[in-house]
Amino acid sequence: MKKKLNVNSKVNLTKILAEIVLPITHEFNYHQLEICDKLKLIELANKNFMNFALYQGLVKSDLLSYFSDVQLEYLKEFYELNEQRNTDFLSELKDIICVLNKHHIEPVLLKGAVALVDNWYDGMGARFMRDIDFLVPEHQVDEAYKILKDIGYQEVYEDDSLEGHDHDAHHHCPQLQKPESALVIEVHSKPLSIKTKGVLTSKQVFEQKHQVSYLEIGRCYIPSPTHCLMVAILHTEISHSNRERGAFFIRQAMDVAKILCHYKYINFYSIESDLNSFDFKGLFPSYLYVLNYFFSIQSQHDITLYIRRDDEYLSKILKGMSKEVDVKKFGFYFYKKFTVDSFSKERISSRYGANSIVSIYCFRLVNFVRLLTKYSVKSNWAIKKKYIESETAAVRLIGD
User: Is 229 among the domain residues?
Assistant: First the structure.
């Protein structure tokens, strides 16, 4: 007996959402969109910060009639708010680049910043932004960081208190933010964390950098399309350990899908070869296989040569989407990782400039006193608790 399709399952709603945020294909199942629970679809988009992209996709693909007026008004309002927010962020970014250029620093933008300035999403409103990452030559990192602090940017202690959660933060300076701004700035010395084993170096990014063509924002650059794709995949799969956990975060995958649609020339062979040589064998074709399962990738590239079946990995992801998250276990894992990362050699070396074994041990004691002082204040524990609750909600997306 044929099993009845549950259109409102997490997996099927994710597939519907994924196809709407890209230009829909001839294979798009309009009937599933018609019968699915629209509130659950919107809730899924909300949890993944994709309600903006959902609204843009509905408008572009003429799918507004499938939603009620109240639902559309809700999505439209948030889209317009995000559009204004990103416009403000872009204005702030222009000011930053102008100041850096005066000191002969020409950064290369990374990740979401590239999506914004190179128009991956065809406008300002579809992608949620929280921070701007940019790469500067290693010999200019300290200077760039000091320049930003001199013009009013301050360290974001709330996020810094999470000491390396989900990534090796020592590849960038502590986050910066102006008190009156929602934008967080990260000055990078390397394009990716050390978890990626140096598969993509700053030197390579700078050698193949491209001029920003969509907007006039000063003398800054973006990585080559090939490097944009590498950064997007490695950031989610390796830096955030999603491959190890069998987690597939749709918002990060959306960036990868947009890159494949946006750029005409990407050297897939180079990406696979580089990843294989750094012991990430099979990662690239496997990720593309899972991406294609959700997005039905459409691009100007013949990527079918590089998509290879990996049913075991796909099954791991689908299984993860169908199970409940153990909140207590996640909380314990968080605190354990927080402790290990806080006192790692890399973290201490990055924060305090300690290099010798003796100085690292000394600054571990300093760091212990700093954290003890910080978290002896009850309000700071409240911040931590609130963060864990939000993180748990995000992780629960796998099981919803």
Answer: yes
The answer on 295 and 376 residing in a single domain is no
Which residue, 263, 291, 321, sits at the end of a domain? Answer: 321
> Last residue of a domain, which of 293, 321, 349?
321
Please name which of 221, 223, 222, 224 lies closest in space to residue 105, comparing C-alpha atoms: 221
Q: What is the DSSP string of 166-232?
A: TS-GGGBPPPEE-TT---EEEEESSSS-GGGTTSS-HHHHHHT-EE--SS--SS-EE--HHHHHHHH
- Please check whether residue 133 is in contact with residue 176, taking contact to mean a CB–CB distance below 8 angstroms: no
How many domains does the chain fold into? 3
Phi, psi values for residue 268, rounded to 5°? -65, -40
Which letter does DSSP use for residue 323 in this model?
S
pTM of the model: 0.79
Residue 74 located in a structural domain: no
Whether the Cβ atoms of residue 202 and residue 191 lie closer than 8 Å to each other: yes
- Give pLDDT tens digits for 225-244: 999 999 999 999 999 889 98
User: Using CA atoms, how far apart are residues 10 and 113, in angstroms rounded to an integer?
Assistant: 29
Domain that holds residue 348: 327-398
Q: Do 315 and 334 belong to one domain?
A: no
**Residue in 314, 311, 325, 332 with CA at minimum distance from that of residue 398:** 325
The alpha-helical segments, DSSP class H, found in the chain are 10-21, 30-35, 38-47, 51-60, 69-102, 112-117, 141-150, 157-160, 202-207, 225-234, 242-245, 250-262, 268-277, 283-295, 311-321, 327-342, 345-352, 357-375, 378-395
Let me know whether 314 and 355 are in one domain: no
CB contact burial 337-375 (16+ within 10 A = b; e otherwise): bbeebbbbebbbbbbbebeeeeebeebbeebeeebeeee
- Assigned domain for 78 exists: no
Helix (H, G, I), strand (E, B) or coil at 154: strand
Q: What is the pLDDT of residues 311-335, one digit of tens each?
A: 999 999 999 887 655 545 555 555 5
Same domain, 372 and 278: no
